[in-house]
Amino acid sequence: MPPATPEESKPAHPRWTLLACILASSLSFVEGSVLNVALPAIRAGFGAGASEVQWVVNAYLLPLSALLLLGGAVGDHYGRKRLLMLGTALFGAASLLCALAPGLEWLLAGRVIQGIGAALLLPNSLALLNATFEGEERGRAIGIWAAVGAAAAAIAPLIGGWLVEHVGWPSIFYINLPLAAGAILLAWRFAAESRNEAAARTDYPGAALATLGLLGLTYGLTLWSVQLRFTPAVTGLLVAGVALLAAFLWIEARRGDKAMMPLAMFGNRCFVGTNLMTFLLYGAFGAVMLLLPYVLIEAGHYSPLQAGLALTPLAVIIAVLSPIMGRFAARIGGRLPLTAGPIVVAAGLLLGQRIEAGGSYLAQVLPAVLVMASGMALAVAPLTSTVLSSVDRKHSGTASGLNSAVARTGGLIATALLGSVLAARGDALVGHFHTALLVSAAVCVAAGLTSWFTVAGSSQGAKVAEA
Description:
Blueprint (H helix, E strand, L loop, with lengths): L13 H33 L3 H29 L1 H21 L3 H29 L2 H32 L4 H4 L1 H15 L13 H24 L4 H24 L13 H30 L5 H29 L2 H17 L9 H29 L6 H21 L2 H5 L2 H29 L4 H5 L4
Helix pairs in contact: 1-2, 1-4, 1-5, 1-7, 1-10, 2-3, 2-4, 2-8, 2-14, 3-4, 3-7, 4-5, 5-11, 8-9, 8-14, 10-11, 10-12, 10-14, 10-16, 11-13, 12-13, 12-16, 13-14
């Protein structure tokens, strides 16, 4: 694919470009929230085991986590519009493969391709907006982009639950097709090409090592979580994964500013702290968001639609309160909200200890969901602004992309550790779920303490957090 040339550029139509970017990125937002409601039906449909259910999630998260930074760099080099269209086309084709999958292997292959497509379309949808809009219009466009994504994530479990219940689980993948087609058509017709070849970091060796290292680590943890013992295969996979990730860091150090993940950014205490906090918080939260609808359906005998409804308040609260917290954090700095948010999430997880099979939704499930949502709303917007303020302007895009990749890697690792929970049935499933909630609450407290000790206490201090 040759780089874009000036002759290929054409005047942008900002509103239609915004709509194209919204449709494309909504594919990932919708897929991330709708699949959890469908997992029990997918497991039953294929007669899958616990580790195979884990891979339905992680086959998507693995390439997305490892390739997200590279996807943005390739878009800088070859053209953001082109990569947005390519990623969206891959995602749409993979969704069709998932819907028509005759066996679990085909479904997993489709999920991998979906992850690759998402790694291309997500960073380039935002980069295309940055290139199309300027000044206040840019901030307004990104705000609309984020708000629609949050709304899509909120309504997706309801739509997915209804489809699983009345049409069947393959139908959740068919809903991606019109979104993908609309995004490609609008981008092709109305978006102007843009690129920044000088800023591109096409670090293919780094991307390959990161992917293989995460694969080894994830596969090893998945096997261990089902067996709960270190067999030679598990040990070998974990050692290989760690060795490959160490080689990735060595490659990145040698490439300097040309690296996919410039290690110079990690000389800043605030940047290191916020990314560690992101890994811990999103890992714990991702694990619970996978387990909660699964437990409600399997042990609580909720229908998929009821499970989707049960999660709706969470996405709505995060979408409504996050902008308010973003403005609040701009005045007081990120330290307080980034400390309080994870601890409030931990309180919500402890409330989840009251969830039992056949228990009341209003008395047991809803209070936990409301408190968890409030904690995440405290942290989401301040996290983004704090990460960006902790690095210089030339690294802002890389820092944002890296933080997104770290969040997904947290979910990837957490999902790999859930084998014993997903393998349980009946009362044992609820008991294992309670244990997972306790562990996740402890991880969230660690995330809050990490923020307290690494993030500066004012917006000015957040910009220069000395190592």
